[in-house]
Amino acid sequence: MKFFVNGESKQVSDTCSVQELLAEMEIVGQRLAVEVNEEIVSKSRHAEYSFSECDKVEIVHAIGGG
């Protein structure tokens, strides 16, 4: 299946979850937000949420400051 992550095309298995995608991209354990088609996917749903063909995914890292 193909979809887009931060504007770039990504090919993954048909059953790929948000959790699997983050592990594949080696960004597990970081503070971030995941948005699919302009809707936030809560962290509690990362293991169960599966993508659909041509989804638009945005992954944003949280940055602290002061």
Q: Which secondary-structure class do the elements indicate? A: mainly beta
Strand order of the largest sheet: 2-1-5-3-4
The largest sheet is: 5 strands, mixed
By CATH, the architecture is named: Roll
Q: Give the overall shape.
A: globular
Q: Ends: how far apart?
A: 41 Å
How does this model look, in words?
The structure is a single chain. This protein is mainly β. The protein has a single domain, classed as Beta-grasp domain (Ubiquitin-like (UB roll)), CATH 3.10.20.30. Helix content is about 10%, strand content about 35%. The protein has one helix and five strands, in the order E-E-H-E-E-E. It has one helix at about 20-25, and strands spanning about 1-5, 10, 30-35, 40, 55-60. The chain has a five-stranded mixed beta sheet, with no helix packed on it. Strand 1 and strand 2 form a beta hairpin. The longest helix has 7 residues, at about 20-25. The mean pLDDT is about 90.
Throw out a few tags for this protein.
66 residues; mainly beta; Ubiquitin-like (UB roll); five-stranded mixed beta sheet; 11% helix; 33% strand
Reconstruct the topology from this structure.
Blueprint: E1 2-5, E2 8-11, H1 18-24, E3 32-36, E4 39-41, E5 56-61
Parallel strand pairs: 1-5
Antiparallel strand pairs: 1-2, 3-4, 3-5
Quick recap of the structure?
The protein has 1 helix and 5 strands.
